[in-house]
Amino acid sequence: MEGSEEIVKKLRELLQQSEKRIREIPQEQLYVAVAVLIATFLFFLLIRLFKRTKSNTIILAGLSGSGKTLLFYQLRDGSSHQGTVTSMDPNEGTFVLHSESAKVGKIKPVHVIDVPGHSRLRTKLDEYLPQAAGLVFVVDALDFLPNCRGAAEYLYDILTKGSVVEKKIPVLILCNKTDKVTAHTKEFIRKQLEKELDKLRTSRTALSEADITNEFTLGVAGEPFSFPQCHNKVTVAESSGLTGEISHLEQFIREYVRP
């Protein structure tokens, strides 16, 4: 008991000394100290809130018939039966990737938006880009050559958008339907797209400023265009929505939407 009383006595003495020292500090200094503490608290609170609100949105874009909707359902359900019809409306959902559904523990869900590829509906893309953590541009590797120019024009518009360049939104060019024997390889598709984008860059920069609708130029002046010249990271990979071989797509998603 005597030991406890001694401890209490010492604590009281310390509190009295602390109160005395605080009273001796000028009020101006106290106000500054309190303001610094509040500012520090708010700073760390904002950092935590920013981390919590980091985007988990992945956008699927590309020409009609490239297989975007099929990939959407593979990601969500691991199924292909609902992706056989060309979608005229955006498919949108927040879910844990099907391949991760059996994992133990908390897994961050992904918000996936499949934007219709029809030219009249592509304006929808502008609504979603500000919230994108990454964009997947799906290319039909089976019927690539007849659609190469159209795919390049769509991709050119994406890569020169201010919302993509300024935010440095990563882009994955996903060569889909590679399970077919006659499908083109990702290396072939990459080279052909780079050539078409180079032609588009030359023709569009030749237009008068009044006719240019793109917000940023593409590539390095005087050099043949290649994807490493882009302001944002652009990678190329393969997939097969029909067989469910979408590992490269899932790796891209989890690189920018942490589980």
Automatic annotation (TrEMBL):
<feature type="binding site">
    <location>
        <position position="69"/>
    </location>
    <ligand>
        <name>Mg(2+)</name>
    </ligand>
</feature>
<keyword id="KW-0479">Metal-binding</keyword>
<comment type="similarity">
    <text>Belongs to the SRP receptor beta subunit family.</text>
</comment>
<dbReference type="InterPro" id="IPR019009">
    <property type="entry name" value="SRP_receptor_beta_su"/>
</dbReference>
<keyword id="KW-0472">Membrane</keyword>
<dbReference type="GO" id="GO:0005794">
    <property type="term" value="C:Golgi apparatus"/>
</dbReference>
<keyword id="KW-0931">ER-Golgi transport</keyword>
<dbReference type="GO" id="GO:0005525">
    <property type="term" value="F:GTP binding"/>
</dbReference>
<dbReference type="GO" id="GO:0034067">
    <property type="term" value="P:protein localization to Golgi apparatus"/>
</dbReference>
<keyword id="KW-0813">Transport</keyword>
<keyword id="KW-0449">Lipoprotein</keyword>
<dbReference type="GO" id="GO:0043001">
    <property type="term" value="P:Golgi to plasma membrane protein transport"/>
</dbReference>
<keyword id="KW-0519">Myristate</keyword>
<feature type="binding site">
    <location>
        <position position="117"/>
    </location>
    <ligand>
        <name>GTP</name>
    </ligand>
</feature>
<keyword id="KW-0675">Receptor</keyword>
<dbReference type="GO" id="GO:0006886">
    <property type="term" value="P:intracellular protein transport"/>
</dbReference>
<comment type="similarity">
    <text>Belongs to the small GTPase superfamily. Arf family.</text>
</comment>
<dbReference type="InterPro" id="IPR006689">
    <property type="entry name" value="Small_GTPase_ARF/SAR"/>
</dbReference>
<feature type="binding site">
    <location>
        <begin position="176"/>
        <end position="179"/>
    </location>
    <ligand>
        <name>GTP</name>
    </ligand>
</feature>
<keyword id="KW-1133">Transmembrane helix</keyword>
<dbReference type="GO" id="GO:0046872">
    <property type="term" value="F:metal ion binding"/>
</dbReference>
<keyword id="KW-0547">Nucleotide-binding</keyword>
<keyword id="KW-0812">Transmembrane</keyword>
<keyword id="KW-0460">Magnesium</keyword>
<dbReference type="GO" id="GO:0005789">
    <property type="term" value="C:endoplasmic reticulum membrane"/>
</dbReference>
<feature type="coiled-coil region">
    <location>
        <begin position="1"/>
        <end position="28"/>
    </location>
</feature>
<dbReference type="GO" id="GO:0003924">
    <property type="term" value="F:GTPase activity"/>
</dbReference>
<protein>
    <recommendedName>
        <fullName>Signal recognition particle receptor subunit beta</fullName>
    </recommendedName>
</protein>
<feature type="binding site">
    <location>
        <begin position="62"/>
        <end position="69"/>
    </location>
    <ligand>
        <name>GTP</name>
    </ligand>
</feature>
<dbReference type="Pfam" id="PF09439">
    <property type="entry name" value="SRPRB"/>
</dbReference>
<feature type="transmembrane region" description="Helical">
    <location>
        <begin position="30"/>
        <end position="50"/>
    </location>
</feature>
<keyword id="KW-0256">Endoplasmic reticulum</keyword>
<dbReference type="InterPro" id="IPR027417">
    <property type="entry name" value="P-loop_NTPase"/>
</dbReference>
<dbReference type="InterPro" id="IPR024156">
    <property type="entry name" value="Small_GTPase_ARF"/>
</dbReference>
<keyword id="KW-0342">GTP-binding</keyword>
<keyword id="KW-0175">Coiled coil</keyword>
